[in-house]
């Protein structure tokens, strides 16, 4: 990682903390991942050679930068989906500033609609960090869009364990899927799609 990107990530970390402390509504918060979670995502992408990455919940693009930098090293791409046009615009500017735009594609859309329009086995890794109340509704599409042997990574598995409980149980009840919770950052729920 070069110094320019490292500096931008530090700037966005600071902005996220300051912004979220003063924001009243959830929609106004950035709710960024932790730097440790960013490192974990980068390691997972590169170690599994996940060249086709999908992120649901872009916010201001902080996590997108980690993913884009990781896929750049393995000649991949990241598609990131954000429902808020204002946040998507912030992310677009941050991707441009980082020089990582060629490795990222943004979609301003409702995630369920986007997922439902994707062909099967389109992505090698899916990072889910959005409105948790929709995860169970999205589960059939999440299963479909992930390639066999693909990874699902879901943020906030420890910090919002009660809100994640139903979804985690649903994934674990799905035949063939293997999963665990990694206590890094806000806690990452990682699940592996079975290979037939």
CATH topology: Rossmann fold
Please report which band the strand proportion falls in: under 5%, 5-15%, 15-25%, 25-35%, 35-45% or over 45%.
Answer: 15-25%
Low-confidence residue ranges: none
Radius of gyration: 16 Å
Structural class: alpha/beta
Give the proportion of residues in helices.
Answer: 40-55%
Distance between the termini: 36 Å
Q: What is the H-and-E element order?
A: HHEHEHEHEHEHEE
Major sheet, described briefly? 7 strands, mixed
Describe the oligomeric state of these chains in a short phrase.
Answer: single chain
Note the main attributes of this structure:
196 residues, alpha/beta, Rossmann fold, seven-stranded mixed beta sheet
Question: What's the short story on this structure?
Answer:
The protein has helices at residues 3-22, 35-47, 62-72, 85-98, 111-116, 135-145, 161-172, and strands spanning 52-56, 77-82, 104-108, 123-128, 146-154, 178-182, 188-192. With 196 residues, it is of the alpha/beta class.
Overall description:
With 196 residues, the chain is an alpha/beta fold. It has one domain (32-192): 3-Layer(aba) Sandwich (Rossmann fold). It has helices at residues 3-22, 35-47, 62-72, 85-98, 111-116, 135-145, 161-172, and strands at residues 52-56, 77-82, 104-108, 123-128, 146-154, 178-182, 188-192. A hairpin with a 5-residue loop joins strand 6 and strand 7 (188-192). The chain is globular and about 45 Å long. 40% of the residues are buried. The mean pLDDT is 93.
